[in-house]
Design goal:
This protein is of the alpha/beta class and 203 residues long. The protein is 30% helix and 17% strand. The protein has a 6-stranded mixed beta sheet with strand order 1-3-5-6-7-8. A two-stranded antiparallel sheet has the order 2-4. A two-stranded antiparallel sheet has the order 9-10. The radius of gyration is 18 Å and the shape is globular.
Length: 203
C-alpha cells in the first residue's frame, strides 16, 4: 500500500467495487523514493480482510493520479483468512456473482461490484489471493478449487515454499518476495523462489 492510506480494520467484508485507482496521489514522496530505488512499475493493493477491492498497476511518476495507471482495471484482491467469517464473506460474494453469469459469460449492465466479481470468476481479470502463511494457503487451495475459471495468483511470504508440494499439485501460481528465508527452527538459509521453482510451481 505504498503511498496509500492506512489499512482499514474491521470484520471481513466483500468490497470488490473499491479501486485503488481512485485513491492515487502522485505527489507522495514514497513514489519518488521507489523510482530512485529502480522500481518502474508498482502493483498497489487495497486493504481489508475478505474481498478488499481492485488493485492498481501503475508507474510511480506522473502529474495526475490517472496518468500513473497502466491499466484502468486492476486485479481483484482477496485477503483470505483461515476463519469462518472470512471464508463466509468471500464465498457468499463469489456464489452470488456466479448466479449472474449467462452461459459462463459476463452480462452487460451489472453494477461495478458485480461486474468486478463476474470478470474475476470468468478469468477475464486476474485475482490476487493474499495469504499470511502456509496455513492460510492450505485453507485457500481447497476453498477456491471450485472456481476453476478464475486466474488466481497466491501472494504471501517467502516461507510459502514449505507447502510447495501442495502448490504444485494444485498447479498454482505464486508470488513471493525475492528474499532468502530460514528453514523451520534452524539458521539454515533457504532460497524460497528456487525451492518453489524446483517443485514445479509457477513462481
Amino acid at each position: 500500500r505504498l503511498g496509500l492510506s492506512s489499512w482499514p480494520r474491521g470484520k471481513p467484508a466483500a468490497s470488490p467495487e473499491v479501486r485503488v485507482a481512485d485513491e492515487l496521489y502522485p505527489f507522495q514522496d514514497s513514489y519518488r523514493f521507489a523510482l530512485q530505488a529502480g522500481c518502474t512499475t508498482l502493483c498497489l493493493v487495497p486493504g481489508g480482510e475478505g474481498i478488499s477491492g481492485q488493485a492498481a498497476v501503475c508507474r510511480p511518476l506522473a502529474a495526475r493520479g490517472e496518468d500513473m495507471l497502466l491499466s484502468w482495471w486492476g486485479p481483484l484482491v482477496i485477503d483470505l483468512s483461515a476463519t469462518t467469517a472470512g471464508k463466509k464473506a468471500v464465498g457468499e460474494a463469489l456464489e452470488g456473482a456466479k448466479k449472474l453469469l449467462k452461459d459462463g459469460k459476463v452480462p452487460p449492465g451489472l453494477s461495478e461490484r458485480d461486474d468486478a466479481l463476474c470478470r474475476a470468476l470468468t478469468g477475464e481479470r486476474r485475482t490476487l489471493v493474499r495469504c499470511g502463511g502456509p496455513g492460510e494457503l492450505l485453507h485457500a487451495l481447497p476453498f477456491l478449487k471450485g472456481y476453476g475459471e478464475m486466474k488466481i495468483t497466491y501472494v504471501g511470504p517467502a516461507h510459502l515454499y514449505r507447502v510447495a508440494e501442495e502448490l504444485a499439485k494444485a498447479k498454482a501460481s505464486v508470488l513471493v518476495p525475492a528474499a532468502m528465508t530460514y528453514a523451520p527452527e534452524t539458521t539454515n538459509r533457504v532460497n524460497a523462489a528456487r525451492e518453489l521453482w524446483e517443485a514445479k510451481v509457477n513462481v
